[in-house]
Amino acid sequence: MMSSKVLKLIIAITASFIDFWKHVVGKFKKIAVLDSDYVNTGCKKIIPKSVNYHFTRRCNYECGFCFHTAKTSYMLNLVDAKMGLKMLKDAGMEKINFSGGEPFLPERGRHLGEMAKFCKAELKLPSVTIVSNGSLIKESWFQKYGEYVDILAISCDSFYEDTNKAIGRGQGDKNHVEQLMKVKNWCEKYDVLFKINTVVNTYNHDEDMSEKILTLNPIRWKVFQCLLLEGENVGPEALRNAESFYISEEIFNTFLERHKNVKCLVPESNTKMQNSYLILDEYMRFLDCTSGLKLPSKSILDIGVSNALQFSGFDEAMFKKRGGVYKWSKEANKLKW
What we know:
Blueprint: H1 4-40, E1 50-54, H2 78-90, E2 95-99, H3 110-122, E3 127-132, H4 139-145, E4 151-155, H5 161-167, H6 176-189, E5 193-200, H7 210-216, E6 220-225, H8 249-258, E7 265-268, H9 270-273, E8 279-280, E9 287-288, E10 295-296, H10 300-303, H11 305-309, H12 316-321, H13 330-333
Parallel strand pairs: 1-2, 1-8, 2-3, 3-4, 4-5, 5-6, 6-7
Antiparallel strand pairs: 9-10
Helix pairs in contact: 2-3
Domain Radical SAM core: 45-265
GO biological process, one term: defense response to virus
GO molecular function: 4 iron, 4 sulfur cluster binding; catalytic activity; metal ion binding
């Protein structure tokens, strides 16, 4: 016979479990009503086809130009994060990009891996991508989660280690370029498309990266002009001062001209970049960068996706113009490394 203590414990656990799911279901119903109210207002509906979720601001690097700095240590738990991701999928999201901070830092990549698995295996998203500095990635992560990732982008601003250290892209004695090569090889081994992101700034604008990029042969080489955002990397409230990293559009275009033979190069000046991304922060708030700083909406978990999108500052025309929609899945590329 079951003791009364054990029985009471089982009843208490069951009651807690029921209360939890009542909370989850209730929140979904509330958000569904909010989104319905939004549709009835007649506002133009924005489809969040591609979303960049910066789920953590914490990072192990200290890049001087970083425009999404560690202003908080907050991170949603997996239950709430998955709820938000499901809402985004229901609103029309086809591609999710996980970024930071450094996305492999929380729980040594497990939090990231579980979200990627959820998006690919359960939500069946066409594209799951990640942007990382690469320093914390282990082969064991690929073994467990690689099948759920379409594209992994590694940030690399120079192939000279001294330049990377001057920029702040480094930690201790770790060699950023050597780690980049390891991650590239793991991408080949585990069938993940490999991409490189580069921010052109005062420390690397004279560098010719053509030979190295052609050798690495990424699916895309995204080249950004250093961007200044009030409160993030410039101004009295900022954790960084990126003014010394900033380059003019003329210098940026000179860098592009030097690399015109690299067919995978995708350039993004400040004009193209600033308002053409749907950026979701650690609270799942859309960030409006149109005024030169990041103004957050309320969380999609509180007001629904459609309502929050009205405060995103999203420039859909520029998103399309810069090539925001491309072959962003392994299936679409039909590429076996």
